[in-house]
Amino acid sequence: MSPKHEARLPLAFITPGSEVRLVALGDEIDPLQREQLTAYGLAESRPIRVLQQKPMTVILADEVELALEHAVARYIWVEKDASPD
Amino acid sequence: MNTSLSPANAILLVGHPNVGKSVLFHRLTGAYVNVSNYPGTTVEVTRANTRFDREAVLLDTPGVLALPSRSDDERATMRALLHENSRCLVQVGDAKNLRRTLTLTALLAELGVPMVLALNMHDEAAARGVTVDISALSEELGIPVLATVATGGEGIGELTGSLANARKPQALLRYDADFEAEIAGMVDAITRLAPHPQLAARGLAILFLGGDSAVADWLRETAGEHFAELEQRCRGAAEHTDGDLPTLLARERTEAADALAASVIQRAVRSSPLLSQRLGQYVVHPVWGVPILLGVLYAVYQFVGVFGATTLVGLLEEDLFEGILNPAFTNFVNATVSQAWLSDLLVGQYGLWTMGMTYALALILPIVTTFFFAFGVLEDSGYLPRLTVIANRLFALIGLNGRAVLPMVLGLGCVTMATLTTRILHSPRERMITIFLLALAIPCSAQLGVVLGMLGGVSFTAVLVWALAMVAILLLSGFLAAKLIPGRRIPLVTELPPMRLPIIGNVLKKTGGRLKWYLLEVIPLFLLGTFIMYALDKSGGLPAIIEAGEPLVSGWLGLPKEASAAFVMGFLRRDFGATGLFAMAHTLSPIQAVVGMITITLFVPCFASLMMMVKEQGAKVAIGMVAVIVPFAFFVGGLFNILLHAVW
Which distant-in-sequence residues (6+ apart) come within 8 Å of B459 by Cβ? Predict the structure, then answer.
């Protein structure tokens, strides 16, 4: 278990404008959709910028803008980036 | 699909969705493919001879989010790789997203086919401060790598020139030792039992272990009874692995792609988001998104409903056809044709020219032209995928996710085309519900234009009542369909491509291509429909149908009994039927106009889309849908007749 376990937050809870790092894609996400997210570039320790949370979670990962329903974003575990942008 | 018999002349365009494969295809062949700024436009493999080599055939494959293939469009691409005798692959990648591009390269490289990598949209990458060291990347991969901007034609000459130098790429990674052992075992088995004439056994082994169903099908067919051994080996590999094998293999490819991308990419620090990014965010903004949507809809209404359906139709129908062409043609026919039946067939009430061609060219053509143009602008701007975000909550009510809005909006262009595009949806359940709703409540551009033209002439309230009725019926029917059709809803995950200023030349080309397709499809059907009407009229069948339909059409719907003729026409094409009602607009009250348009909009889809429904869902399901739709259309039309008389 990662020592940073307690710092893990669901992506759906992150304030727009924040930069976070992906920790894990939860098992609650459908396996095919997990593969889809990986294909979009959501891999462990990748930086993610949260653009908005309503009506859906919208993120920027590299130069890919993705919209995720909260049912998915709440099982994407992230940690806040220690280094300022 | 032609398989091993074709000569090695196929060049396959392969890549992620929305990276510009279809634009590149058009540049290299001159052939038109439906191209849009949203993923999933290409759902089938398209082929054409290239401009630069008459012997070569270029294939445009559907975008793959990832391989091994999971979705229908990914399987279509995988089947093309398996069955075409490829001279080389051209991977089209997004220059601003090199990591993702290279993740796919990592797998394609294992197939052992000569490749070229076109890093497209490098202008957008530069605008975002992303610079790729092209020569270093080319050296690492061992294949030609080109920077291109397909929409502007940049780098196309260099790309065609480099095809002669296509090489088998160097592998991007060696997998974990345990995985390599499993792969080696599978390679050995495939080489013995089902060798591919072109593709490397190692690539097939990785895809098969990764759960690629198209590869599994090919191996099953080729290995015959020995497939059981391959299958057993695959199961064994999964059992030996601590975790999900396809996921772990994909993760290692991603890591390799990450490492290579990091070594050849440079990012300049950008102080603020680009204007296109800010605009893209406003469009899906929780507050501004809906007003922007309403503004877009109003602009489309003004352009198609007012300019196309009123101004242009007025010019063409009243001034050109009724004023000049039809009298001249009628005089000519009457002067030269002695047989009354023949002149009546050409220029009579149900004449091929005075009805069929006049409907197709004077009433429908200006409407579909303006619609296709407006739609093309929206497609290329990148607005439509953002619409999926706005529509998601609404579509959740009917058991779908916002992705279903894409076929539905496409359906406003052409229901037939949209029915095919439902393949972008992830589950059979979503596809079935969406196809049903397309057939029931989505009017195609021709019909939409006629509706807007007719009801716009009555009042804005009439348009509003019709539109609200359609949305309410769509939601209610979708809600019921979602309850009746088993399965669960899949939450939305979608990419939002950058907002772009549409290139008018590309929009015009696209509009031209669609109009050509439209005219080829619609004119024969309109002429056939007119001929059937003529034959029914002359044989006494039409008056009999009108009499027989009177209780339903006049009694229940409250329309003049002559409107039965429009519904007979509607069996061939809904817009043909709607045009029939449009032609008698001056005899209808506002309520009759609204009731008529609601009924004909819900009526059976056109013949072509019915055939597409059969293709996508099978005859049984398609006939079942029509059996529900026809009585439902009359039932709802009658209800609105009663309701509107009570309140209007």
Answer: B590
Min Cα distance B200 → chain A (Å) is 23
Q: Which residues of A touch B73 (CB under 8 A)?
A: none
For residue A49 the two structure tokens come to 């910028």
Question: Looking at residue A76, what is its pLDDT?
Answer: 96
Tell me how far apart the terminal alpha carbons of chain A are, to the nearest angstrom: 28
Distances (CA, A) of B236 to B179, B193, B195, B202: 12, 18, 21, 17
Q: CA of A62, closest CA in chain B: separation in Å?
A: 7
Is A72 inside any structural domain?
Answer: yes
Length of chain B counted residue by residue: 648
Q: Could you give the 3-state DSSP secondary structure of residue B499?
A: coil
Q: What is the ipTM of this complex?
A: 0.89
Instruction: Please answer yes or no on whether A65 and B280 come within 8 Å at the CB atom.
Output: yes
DSSP tally for chain A: helices H, then strands E:
2, 6
A20 in a structural domain: yes
What's phi and psi for B92, nearest 5 deg?
-100, 120
CATH code: domain of residue A32: 2.30.30.90
Quote the pLDDT of residue B272.
65
Tokens at residue B367, please? 């409407």
Structure tokens at B433: 């519900």
Classify residue A85: in a domain, yes or no.
Answer: no
- The total number of structural domains in chain A stands at 1
The secondary structure element, H or E, covering residue B486 is: none
Measured in degrees and rounded to the nearest 5, phi and psi for residue B268 equal: -85, 145
The tokens for B395 are: 């579509």
Tell me phi and psi for residue A60, to 5 degrees.
Answer: -120, 115
Tell whether A58 is covered by a domain.
yes
Calculate mean pLDDT across residues B109-124: 94
Instruction: Label residue B263 exposed, middle or buried (CB < 10 Å: 0-12, 13-18, 19+).
Output: exposed
The token duo for B201 is 């056994």
**Which domains, and CATH codes, for chain B?**
10-165 (3.40.50.300), 289-498+525-647 (no CATH)
Q: What are phi and psi of B427, to 5 degrees?
A: -125, 150
Give the tens place of pLDDT for each residue, B393-428: 889 988 898 888 888 887 887 787 778 778 778 788
pLDDT above 80 for B608 = no
- Report pTM: 0.75
Residue B520's Cβ-count burial label (10 Å; 0-12, 13-18, 19+) is exposed
Domain that holds residue A24: 5-80
The beta-carbon neighbor of A66 closest among B281, B286, B495 is B495
Start-end of H helices in A1-85: 31-39, 70-73
Angle made by CA atoms B220, B75, B52, in degrees to the nearest 5:
115
CA distance B20 to B35: 8
Go through chain A and tell me how many residues it has: 85
CA–CA dist B239, B231 (Å, integer): 12
Which residue among B70, B96, B492 sits closest to A63, beta carbon to beta carbon? B96
Check B493 against A62: CB less than 8 A apart.
no
Q: How many CB atoms lie within 10 A of CB B226?
A: 15
Q: Where are the alpha helices (DSSP H) in B109-212?
A: 122-127, 134-141, 156-162, 177-193, 201-209
Kindly determine whether residue A69 and residue B258, on different chains, have CB atoms separated by under 8 Å: no
Mean pLDDT across the stretch B3-16? 75
Half-sphere exposure (Cβ direction) of A27: Cα atoms closer than 13 Å: 2
